[in-house]
Specification:
Elements (H helix, E strand, L loop, with lengths): L4 H8 L6 H14 L19 E6 L5 E7 L8 E5 L10 H9 L3 E5 L15 H16 L9 E6 L1 H12 L6 E5 L5 H11 L4 H16 L3 H4 L1 H4 L7 E6 L7 H10 L5 E6 L9 H18 L1
Parallel strand pairs: 3-4, 3-5, 5-6, 6-7, 7-8
Antiparallel strand pairs: 1-2, 2-4
Helix pairs in contact: 1-2, 3-11, 4-5
Length: 296
Amino acid sequence: MPDWLWPLLALAAAPAAGRALRAALLNRLRRSLTPERVRLPCALPPAQGILQPCRIATVGGLSLAGWHSPPGRPGAPVLLFVHGWGGSAAQLLPLIAPLHAAGYGVLAWDARCHGHSDDDSYSALPRFAEDIEAALDWLAGQDWAHGAPRWLIGHSVGAAASLWTARRRAGDVAGVVSLSAFAHPGELMRRWLASKRIPYWPLGRWLLAQIQHIIGHRFDDIAPLAHMPHLRCPVLLIHGERDDTIPPDDARRLQAAARHTPTQLLCLPGDHERADDLPGCVAQIQHFIAAHSAAC
C-alpha cells in the first residue's frame, strides 16, 4: 500500500469526508491501478525472424504491441498468449517457443499499460479481457488464421480474463489453458489487504468498493467462478503446488464449478510463475489441445 494512501483512506472513509477529498482519492487510486512497466526483449534469440511484430487496435483508439506467426502445419490451432499483471508477452516466451516449434500458430501481445503497448488511465481484469477481444478481432482479419481454432493461454489475471472472454466470445474460442488463475478477485484483494495489515472494516471494505466503482464491474460478476458454469469449451487448469500468491485450492474450486465443459486440473510442482518441469508442462498442454482438437 503506498504511504500516501493511508491518511486519505482514513479521511475518505469517514462520514464527514467531502466530495473533493473523495474525488481526489479516486483519482489517485485509479492511477495506482497500473503496475510498474516491465520492458523485456521482444523475442528470445531462437524466435528472432520467426515471430513477426504487429500492432493491434484496442479500446479507446489505443494499440497493443504484438508478435505473431502462422501455424506450421495445416489445420493447427492458433494460440493466443495472455500474460499476467505487471508482466509482458516476452515473459511467456519459454512457453511460446516450444509450442510454436510444435507447429501451432502464435499471437502474443502486451496488455495496455504493460510492456511496449500504449498507456491507459489504469489497468484491470476487464481491460485485459477487452485486449483479448481486440486480439481475436485482429486475428479474424488475417488470411493465415482463417479456419484455425483459437485457443487462449493465460497466466494469472490473464487466465481470469481468458475464462471471461471464452464465455463472452464462445464462438471464437476453441479452448482455454489457464495458468495460475484465481477463483475470485475479491478474495485475492482481501488476501492482499491482510498482507498489508489493512483491516477489512472499514478501510479495506471501502477501498474494494471504490476499485469496483473505478473498473465498472462487481468482483462477483467478473470472477472466474462466475464464468466456469457457463463455459462449453474445454479448459485445462494448471496450478503450481507451491503457489503462495494464489492457493491451489482456487484451481480445485474452478474445476468443481464447471458444468458443461470438459475440464482437467493439473497441480504440478512449481510456484505462481512457472512449473518446475517446463518441458513436461508444455507436453501436457500439447496433449490436452490435441485430444480436444481431435474430438472436434
